[in-house]
Amino acid sequence: TNKPLCQSSEDTPLASRETVQKPRILTGDRPTGRLHLGHYVGSLQNRVKLQDQYECFFIIADLHTLTTRPEKTAIQEIAGNAREMVLDYLAAGVDPQISTVYLQSAVPEIYELNLLFEMLVTVPRLQRLPSLKDMARSANLQEMPFGLLGYPILQSGDILLPRAHLVPVGKDNEAHVELTREIARRFNHLYGEVFPIPEVLVGDVPTLVGTDGKAKMSKSLNNTIYLSDDATAVEKKVRGMFTDPNRVSADVPGTVEGNPVFIYHRIFNPDTAEVADLEERYRSGTVGDVEVKQRLAEALNRFLDPLRERRAAYEAEKGLVDKIILEGTLRVREEARQTLAEVRKATGLGGV
Ligand code: ATP
Ligand code: MG
């Protein structure tokens, strides 16, 4: 599984694509591991919902992983992680016949845009972004790497390369899309209209709490439920979930607000009558945590079952994921060539 991606071009296309112009979506994820419920509610759900209305570009943002982990061992993990991640996309309902999935590092024009955009942003503007400090901290970096400071500029390159109109992301990425809008406006002002000003679309749940009650579900905090977890793993994780810490026994009235078990119930349990009943009994001290969690595990497993089935079906098609990534990347490279031709024309820079 460490075989590099996008290194053969003998494959035949998966499908011929529509040529009708639709507005475009760009979003994606760093290939750092499997996707979890936070990724789903923050961004993935909107991609699936909108993929018929928009022409969708989903980027495997491998260069972004280098901002905190540039070492070769980390690079060697990218291909395997990317394959798992694309399976998660497919499991969630991304349709490879209509959406384009591609590998960031295989599109050098993104780095070209990155350099041009660097001229349009100040260092203090970047230093004010809390997300970058958080990332440096969670990667245990003493000082800010230049590339990490430039993370949102590279992301602007991702977004503007296919000239996207909409960017579905979680709350933590909202400020980066705002910066992208500034860059696009500034570029257009200096050189002429090349880029649409992209809108951000934050998911129904802007930030999903972790199973431990911490503000954000995140791999590095080890408080995740993965889309690919099996039923037993989900049950186990839910059993260990943080609830109302002041509740010492089932006959003590409990607090529902801010309680992650109930937050998840409201998001993932479509049986609203059951949720209302559990909340009522929790508040009055007539239901135990064990039952509330048992019902949540069942709801989550009902939610994940169709994803598991789709994942297994796609996984059984050997080589499919690599083919999706290769074909998507070739398509974006053509797109990239066109955008850079426009950029060179607008700026007056040389190059063919
Ligand atoms: P993790 O923190 O688990 O390693 P990540 O931060 O590396 O995940 P990114 O690639 O940065 O994941 O983010 C991918 C997308 O998922 C972004 O749009 C991000 O906002 C969204 N996202 C990640 N975690 C959450 C969450 N807990 N709630 C809502 N959205 C989330
Ligand atoms: Mg993140």
Automatic annotation (TrEMBL):
Compartments, as annotated in UniProt: Cytoplasm
Spans annotated as Disordered: 1-20
Predominant place of localization: cytoplasm
Biological process according to GO: tryptophanyl-tRNA aminoacylation
Binding site for L-tryptophan: 158
InterPro entries in UniProt: aa-tRNA-synth_I_CS, aa-tRNA-synth_Ic, Rossmann-like_a/b/a_fold, Trp-tRNA-ligase, Trp-tRNA-ligase_bac-type, Trp-tRNA_synthetase
Keyword check for Hydrolase: no
Polar residues bias spans: 1-11
Top EC category: ligase
GO molecular function: ATP binding; tryptophan-tRNA ligase activity
Role played: Catalyzes the attachment of tryptophan to tRNA(Trp).
Record note on quaternary structure: Homodimer.
Homology family: Belongs to the class-I aminoacyl-tRNA synthetase family.
Name of this chain's protein: Tryptophan--tRNA ligase
Organism whose genome encodes this protein: Alkalispirochaeta americana
Species lineage: Bacteria, Pseudomonadati, Spirochaetota, Spirochaetia, Spirochaetales
